[in-house]
What does this fold into?
Amino acid sequence: MKEIFVLAEHRMGELRDITFEMLTKGRELAEEMGSSLVAVLLGHNVDGFAEELADWANKVMLIDDERLEKFNAEAYQRVLSPIIRERKPSLSLIAHSGFGMDLAPSLAAELGIPLVTDCIDLRLEEGKLVAFREMYGGKLNAKVSFTEAEQYMATVRQATFPIEKGEPFGGEVISIPSPLTEEIKYRRFVEYVEAAVGEVDITQADVIVAVGRGIKEQENMKLVEELAEALGGVLAGSRPVIDAGWLPPDRQVGQSGKTVKPRLYIAVGISGASQHIAGMRGSDIIVAINKDPDAPIFTVAHYGIVDDLFKVVPALIERLKG
It folds into this structure.
């Protein structure tokens, strides 16, 4: 049976969400293509990850080697290259993360496999795989056709696909001997430096109230702060608010800020530039408040309120506190 590979990404002792996002999409594609879904896990002492992934895939391919304990693109490539050559998966999915961007282009070039990067969707159309990616800062979605080949590779943008576990697979964990024969001395992991986080990490918030240029003045920020507090959420903003200095840079949502996936995202006075939408479109529920009925934010909102935020927000606060 044909296979679809999903490379599991883990960091600091945790499987990253993008792994489960790719497995969700991989499952959908595997069903359409009549393929087996395989989670590929590289690392050291990661049996716990393998057991967790077994519920998400038909098989978990585990390569345990102490030299794989920390990510090293060169080591990963030396391990993955012979496995992909031997098993010939129809499609290999890798996260479009710092790790994936370091690994995928070189791996695809070595194997001679067509690669599309930063995909926001992958579909089968008339039996052929096509990819979708954003262009011109998100102003345009492009449908990309792969060069005709036996195998394909794609990197997937984070927070693009929802995580849907579905019926557990109970997949088999298969241990494969590591093909690494020597230490890679010219390229090695030194340390992982976490980006500085302010007093609030908006990427971990369940509820976000985001504010845009519609708030007009810094003095009006208290209004949305009160709404966020009433909802038990955190306050974030679009780029104009950050550039004005009304919120710190670590509160910016968007392509040049942070990507968030809260359960509830309320966009207050945000028109919805493509760069902003790219950072929040994966939210479970999006509520937009804007007096312009043609504002782009309404194209992604689940609920929209077309009215003046200075009338709507106080009414919401009153109702929440009442």
Remarks:
- The CA atoms of residues 47 and 62 lie 8 Å apart.
- The chain has two domains: 3-175, 202-321.
- The radius of gyration is 22 Å.
